[in-house]
Amino acid sequence: MDPKQDSVVDLAAARAARVYRQPEPRAAEPQPRLLRQIYGEILRDERRDQDRSLDDVARAVGMSKQYLSEVERGRKEASSEMMRSVCDALDLPMEQLLSRGIRRITAHRTLRVSRSGGVELCAA
């Protein structure tokens, strides 16, 4: 007789000893960025391109340096009047701020063919 056939297996011990592989956690879907974050990035990029400090631009606008910093980081939503003032201080036409915002919003979108044969616009 084969010794393996006569052995007794403790199923509970075998199950406890078995290492179960945990499923890989799915990567969280990236949250879509808010408009205030996109506009803040554009304003910050423009200010840095001009080699101007937060303090310099904030004084030109008449707001605190801390507030302008929060606007640039997308943490505060400035009124349209404040945005116009910041754009004026940076010699950035408001239309250019808006068009740059549109380009940044749509930069990560792609087209794909759906199963039904149609075309879908998808955020990447």
TrEMBL record:
Keywords, ordered alphabetically: DNA-binding
GO function term, MF aspect, one: DNA binding
Keyword Methyltransferase listed: no
Keyword Oxidoreductase: no
HTH cro/C1-type domain location: 43-97
InterPro entries registered for this protein in UniProt: Cro/C1-type_HTH (IPR001387), Lambda_DNA-bd_dom_sf (IPR010982)
SMART domains documented for this protein: HTH_XRE
Any Pfam family matching the protein: HTH_3
Name the record gives this protein: Putative Xre family DNA-binding protein
Annotated source species: Rhodococcus coprophilus
